[in-house]
Specification:
Elements lengths: L5 H11 L1 E4 H4 L9 E4 L4 H7 L1 H4 L5 E4 L1 H24 L10 H4 L10 H31 L2 H11 L5 H8 L3 H21 L1
Parallel strand pairs: 2-3
Antiparallel strand pairs: 1-2
Length: 194
């Protein structure tokens, strides 16, 4: 087998893989991995097939195509709901309590500044906690076997049953069910030990 040129590797890599820049897509992402590689190839296959390309993106998080589709769907939904909210929001303040969102100068000075500062601090803490939990879940998923991770995501994120997953994969239902139970057990174990 002859080694592919860099250009050939880049063309094939673009067909087999999709890249997600984690720091660009998720502004407060703090992990050491900068890239997520969405592909059906294993990490070993990636390193063997595209050695010159994959070096650029190391360290990376490896995601299956199903996981990549879930992320894309979530992004599309976020965008859709954000646009819908912009179209339907009353920017002139005819609805109750909307004016203050667009005209901060209209907020009455009767609010206790200490209460407001405390509420803002709590909101920041909640957001930091949420982001830390998301990062923790991503780390746990990265530690799991790819097939267990994929099946767990199908069950949790897509709401598929074990039978439906087994039907899609063309294998025995009991094997899929055991794999999902093991995935849940491993997820819980890894999550508690992080």
């Amino acid at each position: 087998m002859t080694k592919l040129t860099l250009t050939e590797q880049e063309e094939l890599f673009a067909k087999d893989c999709k890249l997600i820049n984690l720091r660009y897509e998720y502004t407060n992402y703090t992990g050491k991995e900068k890239w997520a590689v969405v592909t059906e190839l294993t990490e070993k296959e990636l390193r063997k097939k595209y050695p010159d390309i994959i070096k650029r993106y190391t360290p990376f998080v490896l995601l299956s195509m199903a996981q990549g589709e879930v992320i894309n769907e979530a992004d599309r939904n976020d965008d859709k709901y954000e646009k819908r909210a912009k179209r339907t929001l009353d920017v002139y303040g005819y609805e109750d309590d909307i004016s203050e969102q667009f005209h901060r100068e209209l907020i009455t000075p009767f609010a206790d500044p200490f209460e407001q500062a405390e509420e803002e601090r709590l909101e920041i803490e909640r957001e930091q906690f949420r982001r830390m939990e998301i990062a923790k879940v991503r780390k746990v998923l990265a530690m799991m076997k790819p097939i267990q991770k994929e099946r767990l995501c199908k069950v949790v994120l897509l709401g598929l049953s074990s039978r439906k997953i087994a039907q899609e994969e063309g294998i025995n239902y009991n094997a899929v069910d055991k794999s999902i139970k093991a995935a849940k057990k491993n997820f819980k174990k890894y999550y508690e030990n992080l």
